[in-house]
Each structure stands twice: as C-alpha cells, then as structure tokens.
C-alpha cells in the first residue's frame, strides 16, 4: 500500500515536470499552429540563464526566476518578430526555421560558454526531503509540483480572463475577421510566442537543479513536450495537464515494475497506437470552424 | 539503363576487393616516406568537440594537446616536432570512422589518439586494422577486445573492481543494487561484478539499465528504497550521473548507509553535480586529481595554466596525457626510416613511463596498461579523498570475466 502511494506521488512529480516543460509548447502549438522545434533550446537557455545569474551575479535560483522568464521571453519575441512572422502561413518552412534556430542556439551556447556540464544550485531552503502522506519526498519536487500547477493556472487565466487572451482566441477562430475588428494579429502572435518561450525558459531553470545543464539538454525535453501535447490534444490546455500526469504516472509506474528503458518504449508505443485511432488526441477543444 | 540492386552490390564489392588487394602496396611505400617528412611527425587527435559526449571529450582533447605542446617545447622527438591534426567527430560513430580514415589515409598520420565511448572505438577499429595503423584509446572500458592496432591506456574491469568490490562488501555489506546506462560497457562491468560477488557470497538485489541520457530517477530511487541494498553499484554515464546523484540527495537518502559505488564518476561529473550531491559516495579509478606525486602536481599545474584555473583533471584525461609520452618514448626507439605504425606498436610493448598516477607499463601481450587501482570518496569541496591505494600495480586482464579466453600476442586465444 505504501509503495502504491509512493509510486503515485512519484508519478505526480514526474508529471509536473512534464507539464512544466510542455506548457510553453502547448500555448505556441495550440494557438499559433507553429511546431516549434526550438522549444528544447528555450528550455536550455533558461537553464543556462539560471547558471549565469547564479555564477556571475550571485543570485539564487528562486530570485532569478522572474528575470529568467523575461530574458527568454525577449529571445522568443525577437525570433518571432524577425524569423517566424516573415514565414506566415508556411507551416513547413516554420518547422525548418525553428529547427535551424534551435541548432544555432545550441552551437552559440557551446561556443560562448563551452560544452561542459554546468552546475545550478538547489535552493538551500528546499534541499531536504519532507513527508507527504507518510512518504519521504524531496521538498524541491513538491515545490515543482506547486509551481507547475500555478503556472498552468496563470496561463489559463491569461487565455480566458484577459483582453490579450480574448484577442488571441479570436485570432485562432478566424484571423481575418479578428483583424477586421481591429485586432493586431502580429502583435498578439509575437506576445504569445514570447510567453511560450518564457515558460520554456522557466521550465529549464526549474529542472536544472535536479538534472544537468548542457548545450544539448533540450533535445530530450522537446520530445517529451511533444508527446504530452500530442497526447493531450492540440489547443486544449486542460488536455495538456491531464496528459502530462497520465504520462508521468504511466512512465513512473512501468519504470518501477520493469525499468526505464521498457517504460520509454511502452509509453511511446501507446502514444503511437492512440494517435492512430484518435489523431486529435485525448482531449479536444470545441472550436467552431 | 537500369541498375538492379544486385548488380550494384556486386560491382561495389568488386571495386572494394580491387581497392583492398591492389592499391595498398603502392600506397604504403609512399606512406612510409611521408611518416616523418620534413622534421614533422603527424598524429591525429580525434575527440568530439561537439555533440553529446563533447562534455567530456573536450577535456581529453585538451590533455592530449597539452602533452604534445610540452614535448615539442622540450625539443620534440629527436628533433622532429609532433604535429597534431585535430578533427571533430561530433559524437557520432559514423563520423568517427570517416574522420579516422581521413587522418590515416589522407593525412598519413602515424598514430591517432582518440575516442571516449566504446561505440566510437568499435566504429574506428576496422579502419585501423585494415590500414594497419595505430589507435591510442585512453578510456576505461569493458575489456573483451584484443586488437593489435589499439593501445589501451585506460582501466579494464579487473583493474577497477578486483580491489573495490571486496572492499565494499567488507565495509558496507553484501547486498548490491546494480544500475547502469543501457549499453555494452555497464553490462560487461556488471557481468564481472556479479562474478566477484558470487565468490564473496554477495547478493544482487536488482540489475537495472536506464536509457543513455536518462535524467528522471525517481522510480529508481523508489526501488532502491524498497530493496534496501548495502551498496548501489553505478555504471551510469554522462549527464545521467549528475541527475542520479542530485535526485538521490534530494530524496533524502544517506550515503553513509547506502553509498553509491561508481566506476564512472570523476572530478568532471562532480563539478557538474556540485560537491554536496557527490559527498560521501565512492569511485574506483587509477587516478584522482588529489593524488600526491611530483608528476601529478606538474600535470595539474600545467593543465590549469594552459586551459584555465577552474578546470579539473580526471582519470581519462590523465591517460590521454601519459599515453602521448608513451608514444614519444616508442618513437624515440625507432630510426626515422623505420617510423611506421606497426613498428611503433612493437616499440611501445613493455615501455614504462612515470605517469601522474604512478609508473605505468604497456603489457606486451595484450597492449593494455599496468595501472595503480585506487578507491576514493568524494568530498563536498568537489575533490576526492583517496582511501585505498594499491600496494602494487595491477596487470590488465581484458578477458577477466571470461575464464576460457585470453588476449595474447597472437591474438585472442581460447582454451577449451
């Protein structure tokens, strides 16, 4: 029984990390239809930003979260403004462009700070473990869980309760009609992309104390993020959350019963089979077309 | 005209056979003359500067270049300068093979120093065997290889485990949890570990492999909690080492009760995970940065001076450094006209050099290296403390886990 609870808590923790990484991608993919292959590199930039703030400015991880969000969001804004917005309505070219941007970011980091692994300190206040339902679990993992839920909440509010969100939803439904109502689609797209990039940056910074920081760390995350978004259903934020936790529990559980290699294989296979029969993913937003 | 796949294959094969049989006679003659032309000795340096394993291979490139620069600054080899030709194989086995061929056939290097992973070594092996050139491989590896075209200067399983496993059993207990990355090296090391444990009456509570680059260890940690081993025997590599240690620490496990015993955690990985996550765990290797010897002080000082004060040396970069000196000694024994890869190979047999870890020697039988096993514990300052030093150097036995087989000068011999 204890083991079962322990494993469920572990799955929640894995799921919260998946959600953290996938949230930014889900926004960009779901609302703009851009398949952003540079997403992993935004995650990586966030992790490096955490390292830079810590090593050169002496800022702790928690204190640097807001600046990291802003820095990576600014990066995203520039890339949207000067690369992607010039490729409007050309989905294939956008995929290629974001892939290229990703490679360039990776190599730029490698050239500037070298390819060795970097160290980001775990916030000392969260370095210990605590008891959740009698199960010892790392305080930092609990913190990540809370943050990922909070970020999801903030994103949901932004989409559904603000003017920017309303404009974005209008553009998603019909860009030309929205434009004729005076909505500046370009600006909204740039802001959305920047927001998604900023979220990815935050995710990178937040996972860096548990994992490792290297120029090519993004590759793994982008795959995970796409699996979450595709399973959850494009354009469905709630679907992203559900699928992140489903995948977390699933891969954690199989890893416990078998091992991580088997878990990875089965999860991937399950997604492929599911997509075959439900190409729109588990959850679909009701959009009038 | 349509070319069927079969004809194409046949023609390609015929062309290959022609190239293999006909051309080398002409080329090797010219190559002999070129090996020491113009007071220069060309060697290849083949470590990934980009891609996944660049994290570690960059330091191997640096240690090799440092040794070459030192040798050249001291007058070269009998007046000839060593000219390093650096190629970046980008952590990709196919590129390794392609660049190796370029260095051996195109640049006519007399030897190549390179590789970190076993996959990349296996990829270049055919090139060196076919061209009868010489590859210098600095990494600890799984053994079970017996090539006449490779000098192996890293540790093989018996050199890392013969002392380590009994010591762990005595100090912590008999229940081992084996965890490694999912490829050949960890599997072979665990194979040998299980053999040793069997002799010692030990018990393997779990043997588990995670995908390369894996970074989510919470389920593994749950399993460790539920099986309660005395020792976690780790052959996890690369950035996974960092994630495993950090998550172990965050989960509140105690290294005093259940330490990780690693064959792969060096100063390099410790720097990335932070001293607090590494502290208390053990590593077995022939070299640690804190080892006290005049040669090591000189090496560490020179390395930091050349590449930056924050840089660390570790058990693979040390091998890169001393194997370059072994190369120098072997070349010194040869007349300039005799300078060919096979002659260097024969000259290096039995060669000794005082390396930072102590005096090492190339075993004439199997071209592996006699090394000095050490057991060390990581400290929170990011360095190790050496707890046990072997009293004597240890012979390399690349087929230690396979009793019927041994690597000799004639190649792999199987006793039935």
UniProtKB/TrEMBL annotation, chain B:
Top-level taxonomic group: Bacteria
Gene Ontology molecular functions: amide binding
InterPro entries per the UniProt record, alphabetical: AmiC_PBP1, Leu_Ile_Val-bd, Peripla_BP_I, TAT_signal
Protein's GO biological process: amino acid transport
PROSITE patterns, per database record: TAT
Protein name as annotated: Transporter substrate-binding domain-containing protein
Species name: Bradyrhizobium quebecense
